[in-house]
C-alpha cells in the first residue's frame, strides 16, 4: 500500500479536468458486474437487487434552468507565444444549472482535496506518524426502510445521521459522505454504454442529455438510496456489519493521488441529490469541523501556464481585444487537530 504521505507529494494536480467514462468504470461499473463483498460473498446487496419506481423527490446537478449569462465567454486565457486559447466562461456556480454545475463541482472537489491534504499533514504533526491513504467505500441501507425515510421531510438528514453512526461503527473514524438517491436502471446501461463509448461521455451526462430520448432524466433512474464515503480507518468485516445493522458496504479502493480524490469527488457530485441550502458533502469524525480546524489562511499568486508550450498566458477581453497580465489566486489553509486528552485519542 502506498503511504499516506503520497497525497502530499504530487505537487499541484490538474484538478480542472477529469475522465467521466473512466470514473464511471472505476466507481460504478464494477458494481454492476460484482455483487460480492470485500470479506464475504454471502451478504446480499439490496441496492443492486431491488428496483423501485422513482418518487421524483430530488434533483441531480445540471437539470435546472440557466441564467441568461451562464456560459457566456467574455474573456479568454491567451498564450502569446503559441496562440493557444482557453475560454473563461461566466458561471452562476449553482449545482442545478446545466451550464455551470461543473464549475460548482470543480470548486467543491478542490475544497475536498485541500481538507483531506490538510488532515493528513495535521495528523502527522499531532501524532508524529503517518496515516494511510483514504478509502472509497459504498454503504447501503435496507432499501425498503431507506426509501420510506427519504420520502419524508427531513428524512435524508435522519438517514445520513444513521449512516455516519454505522460508518464509524464499521471502523471509519473520519472522512466525508455524499448521498446518492438514484441508480441508473439496468435496462438502459447497455445502450448508454455504447453511446458513451462513441461520444466519450459518462453515463450520468448522457442521462442529463436524454441520450435515449425517453423524455425526462427521471425515466433513466430508480430510487436506490446509498452513501459514498471517502474516509480513514480500518474496516470491520462486511458480514459482521450486516449482521449487526442490516447495512452492507462495498470497499472500492484506496486513493493515493490528489487528482484521483478530485476526480472521484467530481464524479460523485455529478449525480448527488440537490437540496436547497444543503451542502452535498458532509464531514464527520476526525475530519468534522469541530475536530479539524483551520488555523491559518495562505494566499499565493501564480501565473497561468500554457499547457502546450509552457509560457505564461495573458487575459484577452473578447469585446475589445484588450490584453492584460493576470495572476491566478490560490487560497489554502493550514489545519490543526486538537491535542489528544489524557487518554490517547484514536483517529
Give the total of domains.
1
**Global structural class:** alpha+beta
Order of helices and strands: HHEEHEHHEHHEHEHEEEEE
Radius of gyration: 21 Å
The largest sheet is:
5 strands, antiparallel
Amino- and carboxy-terminal Cα gap: 19 Å
Which regions are unreliable across 5 or more consecutive residues at pLDDT < 50? 1-6, 8-21, 29-55
Overall shape: it is globular
List how many beta strands DSSP finds. Answer: 11
Helix content: 25-40%
Strand order, main sheet: write it out.
Answer: 6-3-5-4-7
The average pLDDT score comes to 85
Number of DSSP helices? 9
Strand content: 15-25%
Per-chain topology:
Elements: H1 20-33, H2 46-49, E1 73-78, E2 85-89, H3 101-127, E3 135-140, H4 143-150, H5 155-169, E4 172-184, H6 186-199, H7 203-209, E5 221-233, H8 238-245, E6 248-254, H9 258-269, E7 281-285, E8 293-303, E9 314-317, E10 323-324, E11 327-336
Antiparallel strand pairs: 1-2, 1-9, 3-5, 3-6, 4-5, 4-7, 8-11, 9-10
What does it look like?
The chain is of the alpha+beta class and 347 residues long. It has one domain (4-284). The chain is built from nine helices and eleven strands. It has helices spanning 20-33, 46-49, 101-127, 143-150, 155-169, 186-199, 203-209, 238-245, 258-269; strands spanning 73-78, 85-89, 135-140, 172-184, 221-233, 248-254, 281-285, 293-303, 314-317, 323-324, 327-336. A hairpin with a 6-residue loop joins strand 1 (73-78) and strand 2 (85-89). Mean pLDDT is 85; it is low at 1-6, 8-21 and 29-55.
Amino acid at each position: 500500500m502506498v503511504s499516506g504521505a503520497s497525497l502530499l507529494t504530487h505537487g499541484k494536480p490538474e484538478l480542472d479536468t477529469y475522465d467521466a467514462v473512466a470514473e464511471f468504470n472505476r466507481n460504478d461499473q464494477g458494481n454492476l458486474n460484482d455483487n460480492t463483498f470485500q470479506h464475504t460473498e454471502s451478504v446480499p446487496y439490496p441496492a443492486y437487487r431491488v428496483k423501485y419506481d422513482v418518487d421524483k423527490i430530488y434533483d441531480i446537478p445540471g437539470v435546472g434552468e440557466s441564467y441568461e449569462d451562464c456560459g457566456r465567454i467574455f474573456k479568454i486565457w491567451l498564450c502569446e507565444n503559441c496562440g493557444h486559447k482557453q475560454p473563461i466562461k461566466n458561471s452562476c456556480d449553482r449545482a442545478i444549472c446545466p451550464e455551470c454545475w461543473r464549475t460548482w463541482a470543480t470548486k467543491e472537489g478542490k475544497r475536498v482535496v485541500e481538507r483531506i491534504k490538510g488532515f493528513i499533514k495535521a495528523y502527522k504533526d499531532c501524532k508524529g506518524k503517518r496515516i494511510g491513504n483514504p478509502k472509497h467505500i459504498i454503504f447501503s441501507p435496507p432499501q425498503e426502510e431507506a426509501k420510506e425515510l427519504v420520502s419524508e421531510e427531513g428524512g435524508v438528514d435522519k438517514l445520513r445521521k444513521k449512516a455516519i453512526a454505522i460508518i464509524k461503527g464499521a471502523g471509519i473514524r473520519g472522512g466525508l459522505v455524499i448521498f446518492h438517491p438514484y441508480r441508473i436502471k439496468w435496462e438502459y446501461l447497455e445502450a448508454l454504454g455504447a453511446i458513451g463509448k462513441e461520444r466519450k461521455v459518462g453515463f450520468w451526462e448522457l442521462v442529463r442529455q436524454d441520450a435515449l430520448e425517453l423524455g425526462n432524466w427521471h425515466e433513466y433512474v430508480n430510487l436506490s438510496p446509498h452513501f459514498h464515503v471517502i474516509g480513514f480507518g480500518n474496516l470491520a468485516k462486511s458480514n459482521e456489519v450486516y449482521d449487526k445493522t442490516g447495512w452492507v458496504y462495498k470497499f472500492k479502493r484506496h486513493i493515493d493521488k490528489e487528482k484521483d480524490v478530485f476526480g472521484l469527488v467530481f464524479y460523485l457530485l455529478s449525480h448527488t441529490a440537490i437540496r436547497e441550502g444543503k451542502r452535498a458533502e458532509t464531514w464527520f469524525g476526525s475530519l468534522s469541523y469541530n475536530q479539524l480546524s483551520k488555523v491559518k489562511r495562505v494566499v499565493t499568486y501564480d501565473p497561468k501556464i500554457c499547457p502546450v508550450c509552457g509560457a505564461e498566458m495573458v487575459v484577452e477581453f473578447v469585446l475589445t481585444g484588450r490584453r492584460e497580465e493576470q495572476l491566478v489566486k490560490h487560497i489554502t489553509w493550514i489545519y490543526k487537530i486538537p491535542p489528544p486528552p489524557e487518554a490517547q485519542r484514536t483517529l
